[in-house]
Amino acid sequence: MTKVVIVGVGLIGGSFALGLKAAGAAGHIVGLGRSAQALARARELGIIDEAATSPQEAMRGADLVLLAAPVAQTGAILASLLPHLEPQTIVTDAGSTKSDVVAAARAALGDRVHQFVPGHPIAGRESNGPDAAIPDLYRGKKTVLAPLPENAAEAVEKVAAAWRTCGAIIHMLTPQEHDKVFAAVSHLPHLLAYALVDDIANKPHADLLFQYAASGFRDFTRIAGSSPEMWRDISLANRDALLGELDAYLAQLTHLRARLAASDGPALEATYANAQRARRAWTEAIEAAEKPPAPDQESGK
Amino acid sequence: MTKVVIVGVGLIGGSFALGLKAAGAAGHIVGLGRSAQALARARELGIIDEAATSPQEAMRGADLVLLAAPVAQTGAILASLLPHLEPQTIVTDAGSTKSDVVAAARAALGDRVHQFVPGHPIAGRESNGPDAAIPDLYRGKKTVLAPLPENAAEAVEKVAAAWRTCGAIIHMLTPQEHDKVFAAVSHLPHLLAYALVDDIANKPHADLLFQYAASGFRDFTRIAGSSPEMWRDISLANRDALLGELDAYLAQLTHLRARLAASDGPALEATYANAQRARRAWTEAIEAAEKPPAPDQESGK
């Protein structure tokens, strides 16, 4: 019987547990975390079978452990698990940054770091906590694994298999590649959205401005509704890659500002058109990937 | 019998026509425009009753004219209408910028400018053309009117009444106020979204980046799917206000970059939290405004 430990039974950890349960793939799921209230609620909702009161209890005979707590806590959590880490146990995580998680894992686990396989499921919802957890959160979504040179192939496969059971598609990146990619397509947009709303909110006529903000503004700033604590941690954890992307974007904006100041219509239109084209190609590729394959009407031919 | 002329029978003009028709408020709707194909399609869809072949024919006996063509064409269109502009006819527009429209109207109409009431319905959809037009597009949405000192109160009221018939709520701003407000909450976000997608699309590893872009990126960049020609025109038409907002935003980003470079967690969190708070207050205010009033359970008391 497989024993799975979830550290942090919120949206991410809870949905992983529910996905495994829905597939009948988890023998016994144990929750561990700082919030006794969240653990009790997760138990009530049938997300976990047992709320552990100590790492020692939770880790006894564990096959797989998922850390689904804020990335800044990774080192402290791993340090608390280490004394109880049995040889067969594989630990993974769900953090939005990977280089810092790897550094924390190396520092905390030392030569046991081969038992830690870094990961990042690319899925989320606007709501949080155990009540937000759903079994289908990862279905059809990517989970990035960023294995360490120390990881055995079997360890990586154990983690990949669990995510596949939840319906996720496994992608492999190095921690550095991961952080550079997500700095560009996730961390920078969050910073830009927060910055815009904060900028507007601080203007003396903010009320007038918000009164006329419409659906375009709502979509553009949706990610500024995300948890400030979580995104502070992500920004700091991925600081160098994020600074690099921010500098590239500032250079782009400065260039575009000069074109606008010069009333250079063709240059503005070329930038806008390139963006529209690239975005359309991207959304079409997503839609094609999400569409079920057409039935084969000439099977056998 | 009221005669309404729609110049540009796409999403905006077509939905205005359908809104009036749905309320039984338009006796006869005439379409005018550069595209014979769009006019024929609008006729086929029952958006207009007649496709005019000349401004002269369209303007004969007209009560109300809506310009729903790209703002850069306003001057040329008004000049073509002027020789046929009867004393009872009121002309309005649906352009996303107002200072430039007012300047074009003054130049084209001279002392007949009192017959032109500038306007801007705050509504849209991702699709365009007559096929995208729907009678409910403006229901519950704001329409900003930016009247001129020369406009008679009756002229303004005629335009306001037509928009109210389509279900819109009338707001009044000066052209300058209008342009400053929309530079901040609409034009700048469009420029930022276009700039981000263009920036990513031009990187050598763009394909890798787009592969990991998820729902947050999709929402943030949705407005970069808008028409490049239209947004080139809006950017140029509202250049000065847009430059002002862009400079404020660049200063904000530069400040935030310094905080990030200094790993100043509390400052980042304060900015993010202020944005989250302001956005939540805004969305709650919108939802409250859109919710029908609770039934009065103690009427008479």
TrEMBL record, chains A, B:
It holds the Pfam family PDH_N. SUPFAM superfamilies: 6-phosphogluconate dehydrogenase C-terminal domain-like, NAD(P)-binding Rossmann-fold domains. GO terms for molecular function: NAD+ binding; prephenate dehydrogenase (NAD+) activity; prephenate dehydrogenase (NADP+) activity. The keyword Oxidoreductase applies. Keywords: Oxidoreductase. GO terms for biological process: tyrosine biosynthetic process. Gene3D superfamilies: 6-phosphogluconate dehydrogenase C-terminal like domain, NAD(P)-binding Rossmann-like Domain. The keyword Oxidoreductase applies. Residues 2-290 form the Prephenate/arogenate dehydrogenase domain. InterPro entries: 6-PGluconate_DH-like_C_sf, NAD(P)-bd_dom_sf, PDH_C, PDH_N, Preph/Arog_dehydrog, Prephen_DH. This is Prephenate dehydrogenase/arogenate dehydrogenase family protein.
